[in-house]
Amino acid sequence: MRGVRDRNTKRRQMIELENVSKTYGGQTALCNISLKVERGDMAFVTGPSGAGKTTLFKLLYLAEKPDEGTITIAGCNAADLKSSSIPLLRRNIGVVFQDFKLLNNKTVYDNIALTLRIRGFMEREIKERVHSVLKMVNLRHKVDNYPLTLSGGEQQRITIARSIVGEPTVMLADEPTGNLDEENEKDIMRIFKQINTKGTTILIATHNRALFENTARKVFFLDGGILKGEEE
Amino acid sequence: MFSLRLALQSVIKEMWMSLLSMLSIGVMLFILVAVAVIVYNVEKLTARLPERLTVMVILKEGVTSEENKAVQAAIKAEPAVKAVTFVSKEKALDELKKSLKKDDFILKGFAENPLFDSFDVKIKSEGVHIDEVKRLIQKIKSMKGVDDVEYGEMLMDSMYALKSGMRALGLSIGIVFVCSVTFICYTTVKILFYRHKEEIEVYKLLGATRWFVRAPFFIEGSIIGILGGVLGSGMLMGFYYYFLRKLVADIPMFTFMSIPLQFLYVLPAVGMFLGLGGSVLALGRLKY
């Protein structure tokens, strides 16, 4: 019975870190971190600058490997993955960056469509999906614009649209409202909640307490690479 | 299709760099093919040398008619021999007189005919290698009744030295230019790759495979190679129409020269192959 319960618990975890540590040239970025985010949850990671939030995210989207510990994301143990399988896992993870990482020489449409072209979708389906996500982030009228002609808030919404168009099971957002005003901040959070209600697990890194206060969401406190606490 | 589109967009966007690479490749392939044309023509010329060769078999003094017939039959039986004609020393003298014309007084100093009976041996026009001719001559020399064999040995040896020299030169130039073309494609693709590094980072984050990232660069290298080859073919056509044809028309010595037109089709294919090779080398050791 206990084994069955453990297996069910494992299945419920969408993100799981066990005793994960990472150092850069002798400098500890993360030390013995263990955390779990369940399927369909929206959780936050917070802490001051240099706390290790970005390192944690780099480990989660497999841009870096941990020195110690195990990472399980979207049901896959990162250590067991061959390098050729990493792109396939990344297709299950939508990532949103503070600096957007949009391609400025491509239109909004092409930026979002890129996610689907990489997966080999047909142009007809790409068109349908891109218009659908643009509607969700209220930017259908900007489909032919180039990123640099958009405001910061609009660019971030395009980044979110790009990350959700492939319908990932997990979404990671690193300081998604970092450069935005209060109005845009609310707008972005509204979109995240909307995505979350559709079943996508979301982990947001932020130093802005206003984003998670009074939300009854799980919050992980990082400081100096150490997990100081967990609140719900 | 998306990779092809990205590659074409990049070729157009980086037009000057692409043009410069294509031009360099075109010029190199043209020089390469020009050397190949020279080697081809020297080969063609030397291949026809045995057919133009007249071998004169000088018979010993006092050879009987039976011995004479036996030598003729033995020579005729050789597979490389097309025809054997007996030239008596009297006929040879008549021919010499005819060729000397007014200067035939030279021969008046001789009390008797100083010439010998001989055979003129014609070699077959096709499929006879020069080594076979040399072997035949040695064999004839060893026949009973044969005093000596004369043929254009000096000319033949110099032509064959020229042939092997051109082959070696062609091969060396070929290797150098093939490496150069590959290096141009290698450098171009590497520069393009670094220029697109940020874009590639985004591709990776969105789940692009190694192949998806690399394919546009492979295609781009191939396109630059093909277009370089097309330019080289254009230069070759220009060389043929504006130089070689006039040269052949004006100086009969060069009438044997020709350019195999297959080179026109082969050059773009060679360009594509080298372009693709350069791209593979450029991206081969990169992490992505």
Largest sheet of chain B: 4 strands, antiparallel
- List segments of chain B where confidence is low: pLDDT < 50 over at least 5 consecutive residues: none
The dominant shape of chain A is globular
Low-confidence stretches of chain A: 1-6
Structural class of chain A comes to alpha/beta
**Helical coverage of chain A, percent range:** 25-40%
Whole-number average pLDDT of chain B? 83
Taken from the alpha-carbon principal axes, the silhouette of chain B is elongated
Task: Determine Rg of chain A (CA atoms, Å).
Answer: 18 Å
Across the major sheet of chain B, the strand order is 2-3-1-4
Distance between the termini of chain A: 28 Å
List the strand order in the largest sheet of chain A: 6-7-8-3-9-10
How many helical elements of chain A? 7
Oligomer: heterodimer
Taken in chain order, the helices and strands of chain A follow as HEEEHEEHEHHHEHEEE
Question: Can you put this structure into words, describing what you see?
Answer:
The complex is a heterodimer of chains A (232) and B (288). Chain A is of the alpha/beta class. Chain A has a single domain, classed as 3-Layer(aba) Sandwich (Rossmann fold). Chain A is built from seven helices and ten strands. In chain A, strands 6-7-8-3-9-10 form a six-stranded mixed beta sheet. In chain A, helix 4 packs parallel to helix 6 and helix 6 (152-164) packs parallel to helix 7. The radius of gyration of chain A is 18 Å and the shape is globular. A four-stranded antiparallel beta sheet of chain B has the order 2-3-1-4. Chain B is of the alpha+beta class. Chain B folds into two domains: 2-47 and 161-284, no CATH class; 54-151, Alpha-Beta Plaits (2-Layer Sandwich). The A-B interface holds A 61, 63, 84, 87-91, 95, 101-103, 114-115, 117-119, 162, 166 and B 2, 199, 201-210, 212.
